[in-house]
Amino acid sequence: MSLLSVEDLVQTFPVAGSRALVRAVNGVSFTLARGETLALVGESGSGKTTIGRCLLGLITPSGGRIVFNGMEMGGKRSVRSPEIRGKLQLVFQEPSESLDPRMRLHEIIEEPLRALGLDRLERERLVKEAARRVGLPEWLLTSYPAEISMGLQQRVGIARAIVSKPEIIVLDEPTSALDPTARAEIIDLLIRLQRELGTAYLFISHDLSAVRQLSHRLAVLYLGMIVEQGESAALFSQPGHPYTVGLLSSVLLPNPKIKRLTQLKLAGEIPSPIDLPKACFLAGRCPLAEERCRAVMPPVETVAPGHIVRCYRTDEVMRMEQAVDYFGQFQAESDRILGAGVPRDMR
Amino acid sequence: MSGSPNMSAGTEGSAAKGDPLLQIIGLTVEFPQFGAASRPALNNVDFSIARGEVVGLVGESGSGKTTLARSIMQLVPEPGYISGGRVLFEGRDLGTLGPSELRQLRGREISMIISNPRGELDPLQTVGNQIGNVLRAHTPLDGAGIRARALELLRQVSIPAPERRINAYPHELSGGMAQRVVMAIALACSPKLVVSDDATSGLDVTVQAQVLELMRDLVTGFGTSLLFVTRDIGITAHYCDRVAVIYAGEIVEEGPRDAFFENPRHPYSILLLSAFAQNERLRRYWLGDTTAGASRAREQGCPFANRCVRVQDRCRVENPERREFGRGHFAKCHYPVER
Ligand SMILES: Nc1ncnc2c1ncn2[C@@H]1O[C@H](COP(=O)(O)OP(=O)(O)OP(=O)(O)O)[C@@H](O)[C@H]1O
Ligand SMILES: Nc1ncnc2c1ncn2[C@@H]1O[C@H](COP(=O)(O)OP(=O)(O)O)[C@@H](O)[C@H]1O
Ligand SMILES: [Mg+2]
Ligand SMILES: [Mg+2]
C-alpha cells in the first residue's frame, strides 16, 4: 500500500465578479511510497502549489480523494486530526517570507510541536536534534531570521519541517530563491535527510537538474493535468510528451556542449486556466498538434511499465527524440573537469 | 535595422574599427557607509566588450554585477560613487560627460533591461505609448512613423497580434510578454550595447529559453553587443561568446566560452560549476565547509582566500594580479588549477 494516494484531484477557484472558474487542478492522480521522492514539475501556473496545499489541508479540494496511510482525508479527518497531525509538513520557496521575523530560530523550528502535546524538555530535545540534522549550530538558534543568510534560512525551514518526524514533506520550490552554492547544499541536505529518516518527498520544482538529482519518479504537470509520469531517469532520457521535451530542452546545464537539441519547440506561454481547451491542453503550443488533438482529449496511455503519457503523438515524439542521458553525460564531463587539482583520495 | 543613421562615422579618431566598443579600466566603486576598512563594491575591474559580442557576467548575489552594469551607464546608486578608473565607450570617457549627454547616451546607444519587467513598465501607459516615448526622445520619428516603428519592434520581439498588444496596459500582459515589451523598448533606438541584468530570472525555463534566443538573435542580427548579467552560469554556457566571473567586486576569471568551460582555472569558477555536479565528493571538495554561513571577503589579499580550498599563506596577504593563460583567458589566482 502506498503511503499516499491521490485520486482524480480537482481544485477550482471562483473568479471574483464572474461565474467563471479558475480550473487549477483537473483530475490529478499519483501515489507516493515510503521514503520515495516524487517530483512535480511544470511551468508556473500549472497547479503545483495548489496540489501541495490540498495535501496539507490548507484548502479543501473541489473533488477527488486523498488517502494517507489508508485513511481518507476529508470530512472530519484532516491534517489536524490527532492520527495525522505532524505527519505531513511543508517547506516553502521563499524562506524569508515563510519565517516569522519576530521569532527566534528555535521558536520557529518548535512551532509544529506546539499542537502535539509534548512537554517542554521533549520539545527542546527535538528542536536541537532537528537543528543538528540540518547543520545549524546550536549557538545560532537564538538569532532572528534576518540575521542569517538565505541558505541558512532555508535550513531553518527544513528543520521546522522535520522536527515533528513527518512521513511526507511537501517541498515547494525549496531551492529556487537560493544562490547555486546554497542550492547545492540544500539538495545534499535533502538527500541525506531522506536517507537518514526515510521521509517521502513531494518535490515541487522547475529546477530540472535538482529534480534529476533528487527524485525517483517524475510527474509532469500542465494546466492542472499530469501529461506524463514515470521513472525520472527514463523520462529524462526518453521523454514521450512534447511538453516534457519542451521543459527538458530548456534546461541550461553549465557546459556549452551539452543540451537537448530538438525540433519540438513549444510556442507561446501557458494560458490562464480559466478557459481550458476541450481537447489536449497543449495543442495551442505544440508543434505536433493535429486535428484530433484539438477535437478530443487524448487518453492516458502506458508506454512502458510505470510510464504513462497523455498524448496521441507519443510514438512520433519518441522517434524524433533521441534517447540520450544528457544529465549523465554532463555528470561524466563535470567529473573530469572538476577532478583536476583534487587530491586523488578525495575524488 | 536600416533606419539608424551612422552617427559614429568619423567621430573621435580613437574609435577605430578593431577597438572594443566598451572598455573598463581599473574601475573602483565604493559605498562609503560600510566603513573604510571593507572592500569596495567593485575593485579595480578591467573589462571590455567588442562590437557584436555577447558577454556573460556571472557571480553570486552581492558580488557586484548590478553595480558594474549600472556604472557602465554612470548610474551608481547613492551613496555609492566611482572612486577610480574609467569607462570608455567608443573611446569616449563616459565619466567626463555631463547629465544631458549621458541622458542622450542612455536608451539610444546603451540600454539596460532589468528583471521584474512589470516594475520597469509604467502601469498607467499603454505599451505603444511607452515605446513611443523612447522613440520621441531619441529619434526624429513622429506620429505615424512612431506607431509603425513600435509595431515593427513588437513584431521583432515575437509578440503575437502586435496591432492589438500595442494598446494593452502592462497588467494585461504575462511575465514573458512584459519582458518582451521591455526588450522592445531597449532595442527601440538600435543601441550599440544592451545590458541585461538578470532579465530572465523570473521567467519559466521554457519562456526564458524563448527570450534568450530572441535576445541573442536580435543582437547578432544587428551587430549590437550584449552584456548578460546573471547568477545562472548555465545561461552563460549557452548564450554567450565570452564569460566573466565576478567575486566580491573583482573579475576573478574571464575567457572565451569554450576555453573557460573546458578549462576553468580559478577555484571560485570551479566552485560555481561544482554546484551542479552530482559527485558529492568533488562538490564537497570545491565548496569547502560553508555550514557556518558565508564567510566574508578578506580586507586584504585575495578576496576569495577565506573560502578557497587551495588557499596558501601568500593568498592572505597579496591580491593576485590578472594573468593570461591562453588567448583571452585570464584569471586572478596565485595557484590556478592546471589540467
Ligand atoms: N545602494 C547601495 N548602498 C550600499 N551598498 C550597496 C548598494 N548597492 C549595492 N551595494 C553593495 O555593493 C555590493 C554589490 O551589490 P550588487 O547589487 O552590485 O550585487 P549583484 O551581484 O547585482 O547581486 P544580485 O545577484 O543579488 O543582484 C554588495 O556588497 C552590496 O551590498
Ligand atoms: N486562491 C486562489 N484563487 C484563485 N486562483 C488561484 C488560487 N490559487 C491558485 N490559483 C490559480 O491556480 C493556478 C495554479 O496555481 P499554482 O498552484 O500556484 O501553480 P504553480 O505552483 O504550478 O505555479 C494559477 O492559474 C493560479 O493563478
Ligand atoms: Mg507555486
Ligand atoms: Mg543585481
What's the helix and strand layout?
The complex is a heterodimer of chains A (347) and B (339).
Chain A (H helix, E strand, L loop, with lengths): L3 E11 L6 E12 L4 E5 L6 H8 L7 E6 L2 E2 L15 E4 L3 H4 L6 H6 L9 H14 L16 H13 L5 E5 L7 H18 L2 E5 L3 H7 L2 E6 L2 E7 H6 L4 H8 L41 H5 L5 E4 L2 E3 L4 H7 L5 H14 L8
Chain B lengths: L21 E9 L11 E8 L4 E5 L6 H8 L8 E9 L2 E2 L5 H10 L1 E5 L2 H4 L6 H12 L4 H14 L5 H4 L9 H13 L5 E5 L7 H18 L2 E6 L2 H7 L2 E6 L2 E7 H6 L4 H8 L5 H8 L25 H5 L5 E4 L2 E3 L8
Parallel strand pairs in B: 3-8, 3-9, 6-7, 7-8
Antiparallel strand pairs in B: 1-2, 1-4, 4-5, 9-10, 10-12, 11-12
The structure holds adenosine-5'-triphosphate, adenosine-5'-diphosphate and magnesium ion (2 copies).
What does this entry show, briefly?
The complex is a heterodimer of chains A (347) and B (339). Chain A is an alpha/beta fold.
Structure overview:
The complex is a heterodimer of chains A (347) and B (339). Chain A is an alpha/beta fold. Chain A folds into two domains: 4-215, P-loop containing nucleotide triphosphate hydrolases (Rossmann fold, 3-Layer(aba) Sandwich); 240-331, no CATH class. Chain A has twelve helices and twelve strands. Chain A has helices spanning 48-55, 95-98, 105-110, 120-133, 150-162, 180-197, 208-214, 232-237, 242-249, 291-295, 314-320, 326-339; strands at 4-14, 21-32, 37-41, 63-68, 71-72, 88-91, 168-172, 200-204, 217-222, 225-231, 301-304, 307-309. Chain A has an eight-stranded mixed sheet with strand order 6-7-8-3-9-10-12-11, sandwiched between helices. In chain A, helix 6 (180-197) links the parallel strand 7 and strand 8. Chain B is an alpha/beta fold and 339 residues long. Among the domains of chain B are: 121-188, no CATH class; 269-331, no CATH class. In chain B, the strands form two sheets. Chain B has an eight-stranded mixed sheet, with helices on both faces. Chain B has a four-stranded antiparallel sheet with strand order 2-1-4-5, with helices on one face. The model of chain B is unreliable at 1-17 (pLDDT under 50). Chain B starts with 21 loop residues before the first strand and ends in an 8-residue tail after the last strand. The chains are: A alpha/beta (347), B alpha/beta (339). At the A-B interface, helix 6, helix 7, helix 9 and helix 12 of A face helix 8, helix 9, helix 10, helix 11 and helix 12 of B. The complex binds adenosine-5'-triphosphate, adenosine-5'-diphosphate and magnesium ion (2 copies).
